[in-house]
Amino acid sequence: MALEAYRKKRSFSKTPEPDGLAMRRKRAARDLSFVVQLHHASHRHYDFRLELGGVLKSWAVPKGPSFDPSVKRMAVEVEDHPLDYAGFEGKIPHDQYGGGHVAVFDAGTWTPIGGDAFEMVEKGHLKFDLHGERLKGQWHLVRTRKSATKPQWLLFKSDDAWAGPIEADDLLEGVTLPDAVDLARARRPGKRSALHSNKAVSAKRKRSSSPPAPMLARLVDRPPVGSGWIHEIKWDGYRIVAILRHGKARLYSRNGLDWSTKMPAVVEAVEALNIDDAILDGEVIAGKGTREDFNALQAALKAGRSDALVYMAFDLLEVDGEDLRELPLSVRKARLKALLDGRNGGVGFTQVAKSSADRALQIAVNAGYEGIISKREDSRYMAGRSEDWLKTKAIASDEFAIVGYTHPKGGRKGIGALLLATPEGKSGWRYVGRVGSGISDDVLSAFARTLDGHGTPRPTVRVPENDTDLSKALWIPPEGVVEVYVRGFGGNGLLRQASFKTVRPDKRAEDLRSPDVAVSLSSPEKILFPESGITKQQVWDYYNAVMDWFLPEIEGRPLSLVRCPGGIDGNCFFQKHATADMRSASAKPPKTSASLDADTPVVHSEDDVRILVQFNTLEFHPWGARAESPEHADGLVFDLDPDPGLPWKEVVRAAREVHDNLRKASLASFVRTSGGKGLHVFVPLNPPVPWSDAKPFAEAFAKTMVALHPDRYTATANKAKRTGRIFIDWLRNGRGSTSVASFSLRARAGAPLAMPLAWSELGRTEGGDVFNLANALPRMAAWSTHPWGDYRALKQTLRHSD
Question: What's the catalysed reaction (predicted)?
Fold first, then answer.
């Protein structure tokens, strides 16, 4: 029982603490709670608790959390606590365990960063975001001693926008303290107190060189109406806070990263303002700062041409030592305009629209901008998202074919809603949802007259899984075209909040099909990796970017696929057969070999890969054989799968020992990260050998390794025998068996991928999942050759003994 240790230490007839027997709450992965409690026990300390696995994982932090990244606080892991302990305050009797006063110091939610929280705790490094009233931003817990009783960790702050010279004791205003302790005595002696208020925090930050956390706007469907608002262009650029100290400027991104070296010309432009001390908020843009100019912005930064960029300032937070954040926006804007008037051309002033909100939005959209930002004239500058700043984006529209309709409900006349579809592949159609809102009564009546008496209960287009409430719909072939306002697509590939715009009598359904595109991407906004927000579009872009490296790894080989139509938190499945819709999705579908099953996927082109990505394929697992010769292995893979408790250095040592022993058998080998917790050692075979030779060799080699080091390795798949050992998985070396391809993504949190390494890199690699969609491309951009060289041209094969 997770709470057994907690209950054993307490007598619940004497202590007011919760017994943890109440039914546990079910929470979504994104809504994990945290609480920090100030505990005046025999030794005063802070209890730091994170919800995980239905309990509060708990650490005792003697001096409390520090906002200073250079300060690493000891955190002693203690027993798990029940979830309802998060709301506990009061006095524990002194004859009970932990006797003393408990008060809630802070509470909120937390989000793990960069991986599965359970795995990070097991590995001993948990990185996370806190979203509390006092504690915010990125934090780390790093285990320093894995004791069986009280493991010790370090708790420390990342150097982000929330970092600063503040201690937990500085923020005790409003925390319930024991009667015998007053606030003055509770604070650290010899330190100036900083109360948790806007005024105090402002005072703390005054003249600081650390970037302030920026004020953010909330997205709304329509701009606010009425007086008291101003409206600005929503620039399509990079949000930058510029800090001037003694005339020298630093530029910080929205996340608090120092971008000064990325934009030296912008630094010079800000310094040319000839201001001693100031903090400006704004956006760095290229060209006019429209949507079309964003690519030019990225290209300029990549080419080191920051002289082509302009810093468009829209707020002034501080000037010459005076903190302006408590002043109304209208005053700050006036001060900023006066400051920039007649100054350097590399710094511009963001003007205020002289029109209504709707008119300002329309002007911005017509000029190519993404939308507008509406701000209350009297708003103060406060970190984080606020109702005082609202952003309205242009409402995009698109055209779809009418493929059916539903019957009206309630008092509605004519039809209920139109069913819509978009082209798919060369000749197919895919259902994308329905539209009913925004259709006038006259148009509804016209549709009713046209559609009445037509239609079949059987869909005439492909309908994605999981759609509901279509049992009474009537379907027609794609014919007429309508234009609708769209606000993106949901996780099931259906339109989100669609509203009717107009009928397009000038177009036929077939006009929507592009004759030049063999493979198109549907549902680009679908979230496939919820934890990191990675979309289908980003997965598509990744595989296109690495195609020159990736395609040779799988081209002409039978494949098994891991598909995740609902994202990695949905129903992912392993697929060894290409479905009919895959095979008909393009003029160049995944092909098969006459010596394989007819529906075995085999790709031969870039478009074949794109088809599979379009069908939500995340992982590609090729055979160790080519499709034209599936009975002969041209490569072996040894998958080193460690017990979770083993340190990474043991996996590295194992890979090197496999490499050395293969070399003794006159076989060169290569290494890659698996995208999971282990490593793969790959052995190319040229000429290929029959599987009847390959599999026995792989088994014998793995068992030899076990015989040499039985305390470190196992060749048995039984998990009970893996404790404290590395499983040398040789079972992937048989006909029809597969292993993940180099450069393939994995359907795991953080979008890790399998990355080939040079043997010289292995010692500098920190884990099997360190490479991911976010950091792989910069690494590969510097390559001129594959880390394994021309490994397929290497002449080596298995030796036979007579």
Answer: ATP + (deoxyribonucleotide)n-3'-hydroxyl + 5'-phospho-(deoxyribonucleotide)m = (deoxyribonucleotide)n+m + AMP + diphosphate
